[in-house]
Specification:
The chain has 13 helices and no strands. It has 304 residues and is mainly alpha-helical. Mean pLDDT is 83; it is low at 1-5 and 295-302.
Amino acid sequence: MAAYIPNPSPVQSNLKGILWMLFYAVAISVMHTSIRFVSEGMHPFEIAFFRCVFALITVAPFFIRQGWAPLRTKRFPMLLTRGVINIYCMLAFFYAVSIVPLAEITALSFSAPIFAVVLAVFIFKEKVGLRRWSAIFVGFLGTVVILRPGFQEFSLGQFLVLSSAFAWAICIIIVKELGKTETSVTIATYMSLVMAPLSLIAAVGVWVWPTPEQWFWLAFIGIIGGAGQMAMTESLRSAPTHVVSPIDFTRLIFIATLGFIFFDQVPDGFVWAGGTLIIGATVFITYREHQLGKALKTPIEAVP
């Protein structure tokens, strides 16, 4: 007679989801710090290529257990579209990481879910009430606080971060639709398979052969990034989105600490104030969508 194994309580599931999301926040913060370090001797486009290649290591165990099942899909065109859009996200974001303070990049990247809500209004004709529109306004106000138009020049790096966040918002919409029929392993696998050759095209013109030390860091970036993505998936599988998504915003604290330790970067008050507004708006929107039964089952982060 098989032993009875009770299902975990909601509290246990929520705690598990929170811990997975915390691991994700740490992993992605470490990955961004590593990218900044490696970009001092290698172009970000080449780093992006190796990020895609080495990330495949994290899904290899699923192929060992399931064979070719993760590649079976009837939605290849949508998976391809997601990969094409996502490669712009990655290339733009990685380049921005090499030229913009890490905390500022992270704070601006949190605007992606806000863009996603606005896009959903036009794509899915979703109705957005006064409270969510107010939160959207607060989120964009936070972006303005960080950018301070009229008081400082709008830099290339800031443009790349915001355009990457907008493109990632489109990916969130696509993944939301893919999640109805495809597993997270299938989605993650096709993302890397589509993005690897596209990123190679971008990397060819700036290619330099990595040194032994750079090989280590490139493998580390790919593996820690892939592990972080899988942790985020497990987090969303274990607990509701509105429970775990606020934990993602600890990335701003982690990345600010790492940026200060390794690159002597000190975020100014505008970054913290704007980041707080963006985070607060995103948390409210996520909670409000949960109340309305529309919580996204997709990553909250804007990190490719």
